[in-house]
Design goal:
With 477 residues, the chain is an alpha+beta fold. The chain is built from 16 helices and 17 strands. Keywords: Dipeptidase, Hydrolase, Manganese, Metal-binding, Metalloprotease, Protease.
């Protein structure tokens, strides 16, 4: 996206295809992978389309940004073929010159490029025993990957079960070229967050802060997209976990004395960042804000210090819960035994979401619950986790403990004898309408532990100094 941005190398996609071929050769060498790229999607019945974003598995294999394409990977030879739409001459009037096939070949580093209407002919020439297509359920959305199909595929023997668990699992662990892209998009997002933290002030609207983030990521980082709808909750809106949706479009005015909880992440060539910062509108934490913020920060740091390959992500979630409860008890909000609080699932009242999730080409990246790996727990709190896997080197995840004061959950706990015995009602009442705190970092698992790639002020002192203009960007780059 220009000399000031990261050049994504073709070796990234070549490496991914090679890894996939190596795994498939162990199972069915005499086969070919057939993938379908994304299609343009119209606004309902209009002739206006959403800005196109490529399907993630297709990006992982080919890095192609155009819509309407197919791809083939010959498992026997490792050769990759791209199939692009054959557009009429009229297309050039509206969409620019028709690119020759050779231009696609050079742009994406594939062995062959054909038109989509040539797929039958090429598959017959390749003449493999099986055509492997992608079909499987995304365990975050519950939706199923769109299987490649076209007129004529019925001539071939199709296997739609083998590919999905293999390619999904390969996406969990990142390669060195992928790591470079992930570091870049996280750095761009961190810099944008620092910018927004410093420009936010009472009287602005949440969406104006959102717009600053969007502009910064695109202007300075070449990130046309963000990875999800920006969450810019101030004051009580900080307790709405997925604030920013169409019914609450970040349209509340920032007020002096309140906290901002801003959860935003850029997207670069499909790769996602996901960072949350929490800071006071006026740049100074009140005692209650400092109490809750530092409780969440200690929870975050406990996981950062404990995580390493072989450690269970479920155990990390429970560790974060325990530290949060300990801090809330130390601050007079809770009373009683921490062990008994854990048994009563009290932490879910204050953090009704999982500790974090896999991160990559999707903000909630794939591979969380595959066959042969730990299954989703049915226990409160743990069942919200998007993965229960053991940590592996070069996984990317978010670490995002939080503490929120959500009236329906507080009322439920107060009415439940198993949980109410730990609450101090008169102190809890003080936090009604407080909102919430979330501290979300994007991290890489290494053989020696966790590397935090997020570069924003995190301690109370760092945040206050940053907003006051006492520090410069060099401290965080």
């Amino acid at each position: 996206m220009g000399p000031h941005t990261l050049e994504v190398p073709l070796i990234l996609f070549e490496t991914n295809r090679r890894r996939l071929v190596e795994e498939l050769k162990k199972i069915q060498e005499n086969s070919v992978v057939l993938l379908k790229g994304g299609s343009e999607i119209s606004f309902y019945d209009t002739d206006t389309s959403y800005v196109f974003r490529q399907e993630s598995y297709f990006t992982w294999c080919f890095g192609v940004t155009e819509a309407g394409c197919y791809g083939i990977i010959n498992v026997t030879t490792g050769e990759a073929s791209l199939f692009v739409p054959r557009y009429p001459d009229e297309y050039a009037v509206w969409m620019g010159p028709l690119k020759p096939l050779e231009e696609f070949k050079n742009k994406y580093g594939v062995h062959h490029v054909y038109y989509v209407d040539q797929m039958n002919e090429i598959l017959e020439k390749i003449n493999r025993k099986l055509v492997l297509t992608l079909k499987g359920q995304n365990t975050d959305s519950g939706l199923t990957a769109i299987e490649a199909t076209y007129d004529g595929i019925e001539k071939f023997q199709v296997d739609n079960k083998t590919l999905f668990p293999i390619i999904a699992n390969l996406r969990v662990v990142k390669t060195e070229p992928e790591i470079a892209v992930m570091k870049y998009v996280i750095e761009v997002s961190s810099s944008a967050h620092r910018h927004v933290m410093r420009m936010s002030k009472a009287g602005l609207y949440e969406y104006q802060c959102e717009s600053e983030f969007l502009n910064y990521c695109y202007k300075h980082g070449g990130c046309r997209h963000v990875s999800y709808t920006c969450i810019c909750g101030s004051g009580p809106n900080g307790a709405i976990l997925h604030y920013g949706h169409a019914g609450c479009p970040n349209n509340y005015r920032l007020q002096d004395g309140m906290l901002c909880l801003f959860d935003m992440g850029a997207n670069y060539y499909g790769y996602a960042a996901d960072i949350t910062v929490t800071f006071p509108v006026n740049g100074k934490f009140t005692p209650d804000q400092k109490f809750i913020y530092e409780a969440v920060l200690r929870s975050n740091l406990a996981v950062l210090n404990a995580g390493k390959p072989g450690v269970s992500w479920s155990d990390m979630h429970l560790l974060a819960n325990r530290v949060l409860l300990e801090e809330l008890k130390n601050g007079g909000l809770l009373k009683g035994s921490i062990d008994e609080m854990m048994d009563a699932d009290l932490a879910e009242i204050f953090q009704p979401h999982g500790l974090g999730h896999l991160l990559g080409l999707d903000v909630h990246d794939v591979g969380g619950y595959l066959e042969g790996y730990p299954e989703r727990s049915d226990r409160p709190g743990l069942k919200k986790l998007r993965t229960a896997r053991l940590l592996e080197e070069n996984m990317f995840l978010t670490i995002e403990p939080g503490c929120y004061f959500i009236d329906p959950l507080l009322d439920r706990a107060l009415a439940d004898p198993k949980q109410s015995r730990f609450l101090v009602p008169e102190v809890l009442e003080r936090f009604r309408g407080f909102g919430g705190v979330r501290i979300e970092d994007d991290v890489r698992i290494t053989k020696n532990g966790i590397i935090n790639l997020t570069k924003v002020p995190r301690t109370v002192q760092e945040i206050e100094d940053w907003i006051a203009g006492k520090d410069n960007d060099e401290k965080y780059t």
